[in-house]
Design goal:
By secondary structure, the chain is an alpha+beta fold. The chain contains six helices and ten strands, in the order E-E-E-E-E-E-E-H-H-H-H-E-H-H-E-E. The protein has four domains: 48 residues; 110 residues, 2-Layer Sandwich (Tetrahydropterin Synthase, Chain A), CATH 3.30.479.30; 43 residues; 36 residues, no CATH class. The strands form four sheets. The chain has a three-stranded antiparallel beta sheet with strand order 3-2-5, with helices on one face. Helix 2 packs antiparallel against helix 4. The longest helix has 43 residues.
Length: 244
């Protein structure tokens, strides 16, 4: 007979139970299955996760510092660090439970905070600095969510989308930068080649051995043309000739 008045409660792994008696927090229970005497049906259990959860916020519009409109999406990783404060701030017995209501708060507060953060940046350097935009969690966001027993453990920018005309301008700007780098590299190569030719010319002009090699090359080229008789003038006192 007594068993008829026992109520069964289950707290799954990676969760924590908050047992209420007559709508007041009675105690916190760990993962397990509990059978508690509840003659007057006064007990209610709220179960909260103890591991981080991930919330995706999409398609947010913001104006940059130079008044360029863009859309962005991001991830918020959060965890409940103060369950008592958490259950006291949200409707634990609502249709969707306290977690859904909490994520609405996280969505709204993080949206406002990140809009302000991105709104302080120039559009031109925004795409290059995207990995640094959310490298740290804004203090104001952490403080506001801390009042609900929530802590943000990580923010991650998912994407940035500029209007089509701005994307075209960025593409042309990138193309110009690539072309300028290529032209600069070509100019450096041309200068280096000209310098090498100049050095070689000066070396050939002052070196008798190189001049003698040039003489031999000239003789070889003339001989290849099939001429049977040729005479080459004096070169530093040296005369050369050949008869067929």
């Amino acid at each position: 007979m007594i068993s008829l008045f026992r109520k069964k409660f289950s707290v799954r792994p990676n969760h924590q139970g908050y047992l209420f008696r007559r709508n007041r927090l009675d105690r916190i229970i760990e993962p397990d299955i509990y059978k508690l005497f509840d003659f007057f049906s006064e007990l209610e259990l709220v179960v909260l996760p103890t591991t981080p959860r991930l919330l995706t916020v999409t398609n947010q519009e913001v104006l940059t510092k130079d008044n360029i409109a863009l859309r962005f999406s991001y991830f918020v990783e959060y965890k409940i660090v103060n369950g008592e404060k958490f259950v006291s701030r949200f409707n634990s017995y609502g249709t969707f439970g306290p977690t859904v209501e909490a994520e609405q708060i996280i969505h709204s507060l993080s949206q406002v905070s990140l809009r302000g953060l991105i709104g302080e940046l120039e559009s031109e350097g925004l795409n290059e600095a995207r990995s640094k935009i959310l490298s740290s969690i804004p203090d104001d966001l952490q403080k506001q969510l801390g009042e609900y027993g929530i802590e943000v453990t990580r923010l991650l920018l998912r994407d940035l989308t500029f209007p089509k005309n701005i994307q075209d301008l960025f593409a042309k700007q990138l193309e110009s930068k690539v072309r300028a780098r290529a032209d600069l590299e070509n100019a450096r190569t041309t200068v280096a080649a000209a310098r090498a030719l100049k050095n070689a010319s000066e070396l050939m002009r002052d070196d008798d051995n190189i001049r003698f090699v040039q003489l031999l090359e000239t003789v070889t080229k003339i001989a290849e043309k099939g001429k049977h008789t040729f005479v080459i003038g004096d070169l530093n006192g040296i005369s050369a000739g050949r008869k067929g």
